[in-house]
Structures are given as structure tokens and as C-alpha cells.
Amino acid sequence: xxxxxxxxAQELNRVGVxxxxxxxxxxxxxxxxPVFRRGRRAAIDAAETVGGRILEVGVGTGISLPHYRxxxxxxxxxxxxxxxxxxxxxVKRLRLDHVERxxxxxxxxxxxxxxxxxxxxxxxxVSAVPHPDRALSEFLRVxxxxxxxxxxxxxxxxxxxxxxxxxxxxPITSRLGWRTDFPWSIYGDWAARNxxxxxxxxxxxxxxxxxxxxxFRRAGAAGQDNHPTPALGATA
Length: 236
Fold this sequence. Notes:
Rossmann fold, disordered N terminus
């Protein structure tokens, strides 16, 4: 594990993140629904270019679920029980028959077989897990060759005044359940170690361009699963 990854893990832990989002659950849609609306729409549109079996990691309250096409088959997971209660209620109340399963799950240790999904969607999740590289490698493992990983993500500055401010805010934002200091190099370094992950899109999302849509395609044709296990990088 490199120094940057070790530092990220020290800032967040699974229990702390789950507790933070359980606290957010009653007001999450009210506060973050409008802020991330366009980002959610962009992520869903990207996912639906492939469609089929879609895994949404960090499904939260299920705010995205009504917007997937009825033909898609959605599985949603999250680590926060109270968020999942909201998601299950939404599925039942809105009769979202395209949602096959809502369950507790850890982005860093997905309980699915290799190549189980056509698309993995992670909206505002990767910057909120202790080990982002592990989560990304799990996404790559469970998506089929030719499938897509769709990520809406915070991206911090690489250097300069903004980067210093983001690092200074970390003691506060980590207690809220996410990071401000999250540079593109986290994705870039992971992709360099995993050449079967092909970057196909990266573009800014509102608000203020502090977020981005990032899409990777798993190399290979549908029906193939002959790629090596995704690399996590050096371990301690």
C-alpha cells in the first residue's frame, strides 16, 4: 500500500462512514438531491448506453432508482442500514419492478461473482470509501468484459491553493463521511495498474466543476472472462 492510499484509509473507516450516512439518511434527499441532480442524470444516461444488469454501489436512499429504464435490471447496495430502509421504501412505494434487489454491501468486498453485471454505477461513492483502489478493482472484477464502470465523483485539485484548502478541510469532511482531498491521480494510478480498464470518458459535472463523470470500459468482448484478476497495487 503506497503512502497516499494509506493516508486515505486512515482518514475514513467503514464503520465511521456507515454511521455518518445513517445520520444523513433523514435529510439526504432534501440536501443533496438538488445538488447532485444533474450528475445523477449524467451517470444514469451513461449506464443506459449499455443497459442490462446494473449494479449501483452506494445506492443510498434510492434517489436514482426511478430514473433507470424499466428494461434494465437493477441491484443496489449500500453500507448504511438507514439509507437502505429509505431505498426499500422508495422501491415499494413507487412500484419499481426493475429493481431486483436492495441489500447491505461493501464497495471494497462485493458479494458477487466475477463478470456478474453489464454496468457498475458508483455515484459520489469512491471518495467516501477507505481504500478507493480496492473498490475500483472490485467494480472491474464484477463487470463483464465489454461492460462499463460509471462513476460520478468528487475530484480535488492536484496542487496549488485549492489543494491546500482541500487538505485543510479533511479533518472536518472525513467526519461527515467524505473527502475533499481526492485528486485525479487516484484514478489515474489505478488505471495504470489495470490496463484492462479503458478510460472512455471524463468530463466535469456541476456544481462548480468540482465533480466529474468518469467512465471505464472493461476490455474484451461480451461473453469473455479471460482477464487477470484486477491489481490492487502494493500491500503493506
